[in-house]
From TrEMBL:
Residues 51-69 have a biased composition (Pro residues). This is Protein ABHD8. The gene is Abhd8. GO terms for biological process: lipid homeostasis; phosphatidic acid biosynthetic process. One of its GO terms (cellular component) is mitochondrion. It comes from Bombycilla garrulus (Bohemian waxwing).
């Protein structure tokens, strides 16, 4: 076990891997890598990035705070005709639009289109009238973790662009090296690379880093 851990550390310090399966493009190891021992002697390299908490904004004094939060109103009539065409009409005026606008499949604008719609028989008419209140703004992802799992023959380094992108958006990201890949330990037995064995490794990774909401991004063979 100590030898496997030592080899993994040397791999990332020297920028090369002693394993037989290597990524196509070797990326120099940087900060943000940890080593997770999923089983005795079975160590996975994991890149785990936790975004820094955003600075708390200074409270703003409002003389008359609004009693009701802002809302979005949606009022539409959806008509399904017997010939399969669908007509959607906006019954309430929205900012920048006129009341009574419509959009549909095959509907012709203007008076001619309206006359044709009157001649057709509607199969079903549904009226939607709802208002959604906005109580919070998107800006915190403290309960979301994005897991990136590479395919056979690769490593977590293939996710570099995605990890940097979502980390910059404030998401917590986790990307492991599968056993025998990248800088993870490479057991010398074939049974260590079965689907069951790899799935158990990922189960240990999820148990270590999973939160309330988790999103899994995977890469197929190749």
């Amino acid at each position: 076990m100590l030898t496997s851990i030592t080899d993994s550390f040397l791999c990332c310090l020297l920028g090369k891997s002693p394993n037989s399966v290597l990524p196509l493009d070797s990326v120099e190891s940087r900060d943000g890598f940890t080593f997770l021992e999923v089983k005795p002697g079975r160590v996975l390299r994991v890149r785990h990035h936790v975004p820094a908490p955003p600075p708390s904004p200074e409270p703003q004094k409002t003389p008359n705070p609004p009693q009701n939060p802002p809302g979005v109103r949606c009022k539409r009539r959806i008509t399904l005709y017997r010939d399969g065409q669908l007509l959607i009409e906006n019954l309430a005026a929205a900012p920048g639009t006129e009341s009574g606008t419509s959009a549909g499949n095959g509907a012709e604008p203007g008076s001619d289109g309206a006359a044709k719609r009157k001649k057709r028989k509607a199969k079903k008419v549904v009226t939607v009238d709802c208002e959604k209140r906005i109580t919070s703004c998107q800006g915190a992802h403290g309960d979301v973790v994005l897991f990136f799992i590479h395919g056979v023959g690769g490593s977590l380094d293939i996710w570099k662009e995605q990890l940097d992108f979502f980390s910059a958006l404030g998401y917590e990201v986790v990307a492991p090296d599968l056993a025998g890949h990248g800088c993870s330990s490479a057991p010398p037995v074939a049974a260590a690379y079965t689907f069951y064995a790899l799935a158990e490794d990922m189960r240990a990774v999820f148990k270590r880093y999973a939160k309330k909401r988790n999103i899994l991004v995977g890469h197929s063979y190749g």
